[in-house]
Automatic annotation (TrEMBL):
Protein's cellular compartments: Mitochondrion inner membrane
Location (main, coarse): mitochondrion
GO cellular component: PAM complex, Tim23 associated import motor
A Gene Ontology BP annotation from the UniProt entry: protein import into mitochondrial matrix
Cited PANTHER family: MITOCHONDRIA ASSOCIATED GRANULOCYTE MACROPHAGE CSF SIGNALING MOLECULE, MITOCHONDRIAL IMPORT INNER MEMBRANE TRANSLOCASE SUBUNIT TIM16
Protein name, entry field: Mitochondrial import inner membrane translocase subunit TIM16-like isoform X2
The family this protein is said to belong to: Belongs to the TIM16/PAM16 family.
InterPro entries membership: J_dom_sf, Tim16
Keywords noted in UniProt: Membrane, Mitochondrion, Mitochondrion inner membrane, Protein transport, Translocation, Transport
Species for this entry: Gymnodraco acuticeps
UniProt topology in membrane: Peripheral membrane protein
Length: 122
């Protein structure tokens, strides 16, 4: 009886092991296909910036009310919104943190855009 139980356990572990190995191979193939579909290095940089800050470029532009990516406009809108949402003047810490994250995302996008012409010229 114990021998049959041991055989059933071993067979179950083998089945689960094979299924896990197949699932892992499929996941690796899918991630490689997704990486190839994403395209050039510029898109990788933007996607990386989005995943780091947790905010898309459009969302950051909407939060800071930015139409063009100029450092001066970003800084002036950031300063105003940061002061308005300061907790000491009755603002919201949550909104203030969103403003900070939006500025970080836009600053990252500006640095990506300034790096791309430098890479193309080299």
């Amino acid at each position: 009886m114990a021998r049959y139980l041991a055989q059933i356990i071993v067979m179950g572990v083998q089945v689960v092991g094979r299924a896990f190995a197949r699932a892992l191979q499929q996941e690796i193939a899918a991630s490689q296909a997704a990486a190839q579909a994403r395209g050039s290095a510029g898109q990788h940089s933007a996607a990386a910036a989005t995943s780091i800050t947790g905010m898309s470029l459009q969302e950051a532009q909407q939060i800071l009310n930015i139409s063009t990516l100029t450092p001066e406009e970003i800084q002036t809108n950031y300063d105003h919104l940061f002061k308005v949402n300061d907790k000491t003047v009755g603002g919201s810490f949550y909104l203030q943190s969103k403003v900070v994250r939006a500025k970080e995302r836009l600053d990252e996008e500006v640095s990506i855009q300034t790096e791309q012409p430098n890479q193309k010229s080299q």
